[in-house]
Specification:
7 helices, Alpha-Beta Plaits, 6 strands, four-stranded antiparallel β-sheet, 51% helix
Length: 243
């Protein structure tokens, strides 16, 4: 068993600058992917994607270098691909937890897919494939940010975008039906309406969340809504995961 007598801090035993650089690359790329998801106000954002990416890279490092001490010993077989296969299987639990159904609509699929992709990017970094990791990260931004802009015009049958309008208005003027009529007249379909009273304000007011769907100009809609007497605040925001 002399083959096991390896110093704990042996930097040549899969713990050198190359491995640290691979972990650093995984940290950088997974942070970029997580930042994009956080900017879109998705349920899994910066920290989740970063942790998935760096953990996947570390597990790949363990898969390649963590068992070198026992290689060559009698009655020992080693398949480095087994750890990678378990990573792919295990990440499904995180992705599955992000997918849910609400009002017959499936939510969270895109975010779950980016978790899976971040795992693959981390594995590529940990496996010593930085070019593939960089290319996959670039493809992620192309698909997530570029496809909606391109195919919204090229595919008339594509699903319209979903977003939220959050506004505050003075109550007692029956204004909400007028605001909803403005949304439908502009070509948007109302998916959800939430109204919360604001008792802490001196004048009676309410905050409304309108989840809308449509391909028309959302900026023009918010401008028209704000022009209504009684509306004091209008905010346009990305909806929750719509894919």
């Amino acid at each position: 068993m002399a083959g096991l007598a390896v110093p704990l801090w042996d930097v040549g035993n899969g713990q050198g600058l190359r491995q640290l650089a691979e972990l650093g690359l995984a940290l950088l790329l997974s942070t970029l992917i997580g930042w994009e998801r956080a900017a879109q106000q998705k349920s899994a954002g910066l920290r989740t994607h970063t942790l998935v990416g760096i953990a996947s890279a570390l597990m790949m490092e363990v898969s390649q270098h963590g068992f070198t001490n026992v290689l060559g010993l009698d009655n020992v077989s080693f398949d480095p691909s087994r750890v990678a296969a378990q990573i792919v299987s295990g990440i499904g639990f995180i992705g599955g937890g992000l997918i849910f159904v609400r009002r017959d609509a499936v939510r969270g699929l895109t975010t779950a897919a980016t978790i899976w992709l971040t795992c693959a990017v981390g594995m590529a970094c940990g496996g010593g494939l930085p070019i593939l990791a960089l290319a996959t990260t670039a493809v992620h931004f192309l698909v997530v940010r570029g496809y909606p802009l391109v195919f919204a015009h090229m595919m008339p049958g594509a699903d319209p975008g979903s977003f939220e309008v959050r506004l505050t208005y003075r109550t007692g003027t029956a204004l909400l039906p007028q605001l909803m009529e403005t949304c439908t007249r502009r070509g948007f379909r109302i998916q959800e309406v939430k109204v919360d009273r604001l008792p802490e304000r001196a004048d009676p007011a309410a905050r409304v969340l309108l989840r809308l769907e449509g391909a028309a100009d959302a900026g023009q809609l918010t401008s028209e809504l704000f022009q209504n007497d009684g509306v004091t605040e209008v905010e346009l925001a990305a909806a929750g995961d719509e894919e």
